[in-house]
Amino acid sequence: MARDRTQGEDYVAPLKRLFAGLLVACLLGIFLLWRIDSPRVEQFRASLVDRFVPSFEWAMAPVTGTINLFRDFQSYQRVVDQNKELRRELQQMKAWKEAALQLEQENARLLDLNNVRLDPRLTYITGVVLADSGSPFRQSVLLNIGARDGIVDGWAAMDGIGLVGRISGVGETTSRVILLTDASSRIPATIQPSGQNALVVGDNTSAPHLDFVENADQARPGDRVVSSGDGGVFPAGLLIGQVASDPGGRLRVRLAADYERLEFLRVLRDHGQEQIEQPGDLIAPDGLLQSDLRAEESDG
What we know:
The protein is rod-shaped. By secondary structure, the protein is an alpha+beta fold. Strand 4 and strand 5 form a beta hairpin. The protein starts with a helix and ends with a helix. It has a six-stranded antiparallel barrel with strand order 1-2-5-4-3-12. A six-stranded antiparallel beta sheet has the order 8-7-6-9-10-11, with no helix packed on it. It has four helices and twelve strands.
């Protein structure tokens, strides 16, 4: 048995050397064949290509498929990267859109404030509505303006359309506004065009009552309700709202101010008017005093 294995090994080694030599000779021949520049050799080369290359398409199919798969994978990777980039840009655009909407709303509120027609003798300061931190009043808001801005208790606060409430409580940098809807709010008012005096009484609802109307029959739904200025609480002529009637027939006020979007409030600086209580408090011009003295001397 050992002899048979030795004889097999003796045949394998020469065959390997023979095949290696033939392979080298074939490759050398192919190299020389492709390097020779001759019309006949070129014809021979063309005939070899026409004969053998088409039959090798099946062998090239896996290679071609692998190349196409690699290209498709690269294309898919580019699509994934582009999709991620588009998602980031879309998220940024959403953030910019939200910021633009907020600026648009703030701009609209400020434009509304600019459209309010006030007495030219009145000055004002605009404050931003802050989150309410709680108070004894059910209907109130905080403003970011206070004593350092000259705010005084009792001053009127308006939004872009109508009266919102009055200042009640002033800190150094903040102040509280009691809304007209609060149960502790009482505002003297005038109903136009009838001229009826009334009192706007808050009851923690969106439409305060109209009480103490001089002649309720002359007050009709849709009539304007403005501040009367009685008692020196508010300046006269500030728009409050319109007369409305509830199902029970009681008169109410449909407020002109938009309580759903209180973002900015305009606080009116109203230092009041000089009250003349005695005749001696009136200072007349010098010419008038001199004429009065002459009249008294002539009478004497």
